[in-house]
């Protein structure tokens, strides 16, 4: 305000200066509205912006913003005291700038340690100095001997010195970013819900009035060349010139005190929430009736003194500004999401439409890139790295946040936008695994996970005997299985049902499970070896087929030792694209492209009666694979009168997975299934595929 406002006005003229002030203040005003909405919805304790963000968007997002925000505020103390020392040396050239900055930093640190009340009372003295400087400017006089034309064109500068509108905007914008001073003291306010909205909005309004008045005064009292060339032109047009020095000193000291009060309180909140490493939890301690974070203040003071000794920190100053703007942007995002989701728990007394908060977030991002694109990217990378680190720590919070509501809103929108008729271009397996206890049949879970690529939905299901568990016990078991899956790194839903027997319960689950059009389209089963239940097992498969659920039966064999061979070959015994052929190719290709089977080669095997048929079959298969863009090796086998079962056994005895199609359920299906198991006995792990959906799987493969 004191050192750059004249330069801004001289470069772009009065009208554009007023436009820059209005645009800049609009962004901070929108942010202030978001702050007011969040502050009046929740009890705001110590931690300011970090506390508000963590309670809205989660502890990871709060920490990703809060940790850089602490360092930005701590480093800002050094920036402001160095700025104070620099201006003091201009008035008293015999002083040592570094020594002045060190002494000033130490004094404001002692003020913050001594008492918050004393530090805040010092702010009144500083505010008096600023008011005095502004009053001196208002009652000042125009420059003598210059041609003043307030509505004329700005000064014409050499190309190397000229600045366009947005460059000037970027220089001015930091002047409106002090709106968090009151929010940072959230834990010390008697009534944060009342004080934060009132104080923040009043600060924005007061700043806007002052910033709109000053360029008008400057334009009518100084010519544009003087405004550009003399940073302290205000001294020359004020009633008492040295009052401008008082204003500069007051502004820098006020900002330094605000930062040294705010930074330790953010650090204290971070430590108490468990965001900081365990070895730093002592930083969460407070002392006295006001819970003053003395250890955090001492650490902040030490960092500031270190930076003052280093002297010039202009290289990191832009990045610090980005962290402040990132905080404003995330606060706007939090308010926008809360307003858009409209959870019943979000009931702010200060209501703001979510579109205004979204506009504030977009404005913050735009300004960040305008000011310094490189610093914006660095700040984003640092915040993302902290977020990912905190996510890996799996910190448990005792509060809910808006993310669950956001996901619920997105799920609802997705469900209602899913087509009732399956879209073959976007088909993927949504799998229901009838695994029983997952730890006993982990191969079924592992297979389903590989098949889904973490893109489709996987549900691990089990049937409990009727009456074996009450509702509470069943929910507890589901939670235990969910925890087991997560510990093994598997993303899946869990569903337990009760039934008179396994088959009745499984049929009822398949018939009822799902939400709208989003239902499992593929059932994964283990092969049964119990002859007494085989009829019922085959009847269950027939029922699944009737309700158009694809059936995949995995007959598992313990794999060969890893040192010899593991998951390197998939044999698909193919009879063409019709019936099960398309789904078999899809399953094989999905497995081949999964992490678990990434080294596997798919062999597409076809048996023909003689050599004449073999040549035509090879050409046909190669053409199909090329058209469908499936990475597989075609192998045509000539039977020469040998039975298929013998060729199958000889050709696939060293495979890691054998894929075979199953006949459509019919009468005597149990006999067919028994014979199928006998014919394939002795093979490695075998997958039996039955395509049941009313869907042309050829179109899933062929999107031309």
Automatic annotation (TrEMBL):
User: One GO CC annotation, please?
Assistant: membrane
Q: Where in the cell is it found?
A: Membrane
Which superkingdom is the protein from? Bacteria
Domain SLC12A transporter C-terminal: residue ranges: 442-557
Mind listing the UniProt keywords for this protein, alphabetically? Membrane, Transmembrane, Transmembrane helix, Transport
Which GO MF terms are attached to this record? chloride:monoatomic cation symporter activity
Q: Does the keyword Repeat apply?
A: no
The family classification in the record reads:
Belongs to the SLC12A transporter family.
Q: What is this protein called?
A: Na-K-Cl cotransporter
Give the species this sequence originates from.
Acaryochloris thomasi RCC1774
């Amino acid at each position: 305000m004191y050192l750059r406002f004249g330069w801004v006005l001289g470069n772009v003229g009065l009208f554009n200066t007023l436009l820059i002030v209005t645009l800049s203040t609009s962004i901070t005003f929108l942010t202030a509205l978001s702050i007011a909405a969040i502050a009046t919805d929740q009890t705001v304790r110590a931690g300011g912006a970090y506390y508000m963000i963590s309670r809205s968007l989660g502890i990871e997002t709060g920490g990703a913003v809060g940790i850089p925000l602490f360092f930005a505020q701590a480093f800002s103390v050094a920036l402001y005291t160095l700025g104070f020392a620099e201006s003091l040396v201009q008035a008293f050239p015999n002083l040592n700038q570094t020594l002045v900055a060190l002494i000033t930093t130490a004094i404001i640190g002692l003020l913050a340690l001594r008492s918050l009340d004393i530090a805040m009372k010092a702010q009144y003295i500083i505010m008096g100095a600023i008011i005095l400087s502004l009053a001196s400017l208002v009652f000042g006089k125009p420059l003598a001997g210059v041609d003043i034309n307030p509505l004329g064109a700005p000064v014409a500068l050499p190309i190397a010195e000229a600045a366009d509108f947005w460059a000037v905007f970027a220089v001015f914008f930091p002047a409106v970013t002090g709106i968090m001073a009151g929010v940072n003291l959230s834990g010390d306010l008697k009534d944060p819900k009342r004080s934060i909205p009132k104080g923040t909005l009043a600060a924005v309004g007061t700043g806007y009035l002052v910033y709109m008045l000053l360029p008008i005064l400057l334009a009518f009292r100084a010519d544009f060349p003087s405004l550009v060339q003399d940073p302290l032109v205000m001294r020359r047009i004020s009633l008492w010139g040295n009052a401008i020095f008082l204003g500069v000193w007051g502004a820098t000291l006020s900002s330094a005190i605000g930062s040294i009060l705010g930074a330790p309180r953010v650090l204290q909140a971070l430590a108490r929430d468990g965001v900081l490493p365990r070895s730093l939890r002592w930083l969460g301690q407070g002392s006295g009736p006001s819970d003053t974070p003395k250890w955090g203040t001492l650490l902040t003071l030490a960092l500031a003194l270190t930076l003052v000794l280093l002297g010039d920190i202009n290289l990191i100053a832009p990045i610090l500004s980005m962290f402040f703007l990132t905080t404003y942007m995330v606060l706007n995002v939090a308010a926008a999401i809360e307003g858009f989701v409209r959870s019943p728990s979000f009931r702010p007394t200060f209501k703001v439409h979510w579109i205004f908060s979204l506009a504030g977030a977009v404005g913050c991002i735009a300004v960040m890139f305008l000011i310094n694109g490189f610093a914006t990217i660095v700040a984003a990378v640092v915040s993302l790295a902290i977020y990912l680190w905190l996510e890996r720590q799996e910190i448990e919070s005792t509060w809910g946040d808006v993310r669950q509501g956001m996901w619920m809103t997105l799920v609802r929108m997705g469900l209602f936008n899913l087509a009732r008729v399956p879209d073959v271009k976007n088909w993927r397996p949504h799998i229901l695994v009838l695994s029983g206890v997952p730890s006993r049949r982990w191969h079924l879970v592992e297979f389903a996970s590989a098949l889904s690529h973490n893109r489709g939905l996987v549900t691990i299901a089990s049937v409990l005997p009727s009456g074996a568990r009450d509702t509470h016990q069943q929910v507890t078991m589901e939670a235990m299985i969910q925890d087991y899956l997560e510990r093994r790194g598997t993303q899946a839903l869990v569903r337990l049902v009760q039934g008179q027997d396994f088959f009745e319960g499984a049929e009822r689950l398949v018939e009822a499970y799902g939400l709208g059009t989003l239902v499992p389209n593929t059932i994964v089963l283990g092969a049964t070896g119990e002859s007494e239940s085989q009829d019922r097992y085959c009847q269950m498969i027939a029922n699944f087929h009737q309700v158009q659920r694809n059936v995949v039966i995995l007959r598992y064999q313990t794999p060969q030792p890893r040192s010899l061979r593991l998951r390197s070959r998939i044999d698909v015994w193919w009879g063409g694209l019709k019936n099960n052929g398309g789904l078999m190719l899809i399953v094989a290709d999905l497995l081949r492209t999964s992490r678990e089977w990434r080294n596997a080669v798919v062999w597409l095997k076809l048996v023909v009666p003689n050599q004449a048929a073999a040549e035509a079959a090879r050409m046909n298969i190669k053409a199909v694979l090329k058209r469908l863009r499936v990475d597989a090796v075609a192998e045509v086998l000539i039977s020469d009168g040998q039975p298929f079962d013998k060729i199958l056994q000889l050709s696939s005895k060293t495979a890691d997975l054998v894929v075979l199609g199953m006949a459509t359920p019919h009468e005597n299906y149990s006999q067919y299934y028994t014979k199928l198991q006998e014919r394939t006995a002795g093979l490695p792990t075998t997958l039996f595929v039955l395509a049941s959906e009313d869907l042309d799987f050829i179109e899933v493969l062929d999107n031309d």
